[in-house]
Cytidine deaminase
Amino acid sequence: MSHDLFEAARDAMARAYAPYSKFPVGAAIRADDGKIYVGANIENLSFPQGWCAEPTAIGNMVMGGGRRIVEMAVIAEKLALCPPCGGCRQKIAEFAGPETRVYLCDEVGVQKTMTMEELLPFSFKTEMLG
Ligand SMILES: O=c1ccn([C@H]2C[C@H](O)[C@@H](CO)O2)c(=O)[nH]1
Ligand SMILES: [Zn+2]
């Protein structure tokens, strides 16, 4: 992964709105249009109404004209690694393939690389709709 994706995720993390958890998360997507789309978690006083960094980045990608995730970086301030939560894995999978790589980063750089198949094995597939 090139350094620009990591730096984009780190910059996005700095813009997180996480006054309740104090757990800022940043995400950066390199999309099929060649652009980088970023997101951070955005919390709410009504706690369940807040959302994760990954869907912010996905929303920015879709609205910006990107359609597929080529690769993605996720970073959190307080953990060595921030594995995407279950809901985020399903959301990422919608725009990714089994070999799409997700880079789990700390403030130094990429610490772990995972494929979507590793993050979300035996996932619900469109074929199952019949
Ligand atoms: O994959 C994840 C997991 C958690 N969070 C956010 C949600 C919440 O604002 C904070 C603490 O759970 O971290 C993310 O952004 N992405
Ligand atoms: Zn999540």
In short: The pocket of zinc ion (ligand 2) is lined by residues 52, 54, 84-85, 87-88 (CB under 6 Å). The chain is about 25% helix and 25% strand.
